[in-house]
Amino acid sequence: MRTATFYRCSLLLPVAVPAVLAPLLAAPLRDGLRGAIGMLVIVSIYAAIPYVIVALGLLRWMTGMIEREMRSAALVAPWAMTGTMVLLAGLLGLFSGGSDSWAMFAGALCILAVLSLAFGYAYVGRAHGLLALLRACGWVEREEPV
Question: What is the pLDDT of residue 144?
């Protein structure tokens, strides 16, 4: 597999990981593990629309990039996701007209931004770890010297 193909496929990780883990919510698990899986699934459902927007944009943007540029794009992607989520949540809050406290709404947006960055960089880390593992197994070729 080429590195470009891997980076394009890695955009499915935020969809695949929760989809694989969601059935475990029905299994008898410790409360902490069940809570962690549940949070991951809920965050993934909430972030689905912004993620589709960002992922499609990244697919378009990554066309013709070399590996080093794709690695840089992956490091910028969580910021793009955060901006998209905050923008959409802000627009939703603005047009819903139901917010009595703008301070509480702004605080919620800040928490949303921090969670988006944390989850985003966790997925970027998983993707880079998976790339290293697949390269060690010889399944992904190195396209340029690092």
Answer: 62
Rounded CA-CA distance 85/109 in Å is 9
**From CA 137, how far away is CA 11, in angstroms rounded?**
21
Residue 97, pLDDT score? 66
Give Cβ neighbours of residue 73 (< 8 Å, ≥ 6 apart).
Answer: 7, 58, 61, 62, 65
- Residue ranges of the chain with per-residue pLDDT less than 50: none
Residue 22's contacts (CB-CB under 8 Å, 6 or more residues apart) are 37, 41
State how far the Cα of 95 lies from the Cα of 58, in Å rounded to an integer: 28
Q: Give the integer Cα–Cα distance in Å for 26 and 102.
A: 38
Distances (CA, A) of 129 to 66, 119, 132, 134, 136: 19, 15, 5, 9, 11
Alpha-carbon distance of 97 to 64, in angstroms, equals: 43
Q: Tell me the pTM.
A: 0.81
Q: Rounded to 10 degrees, what is the CA torsion of 20, 112, 94, 55?
A: -50
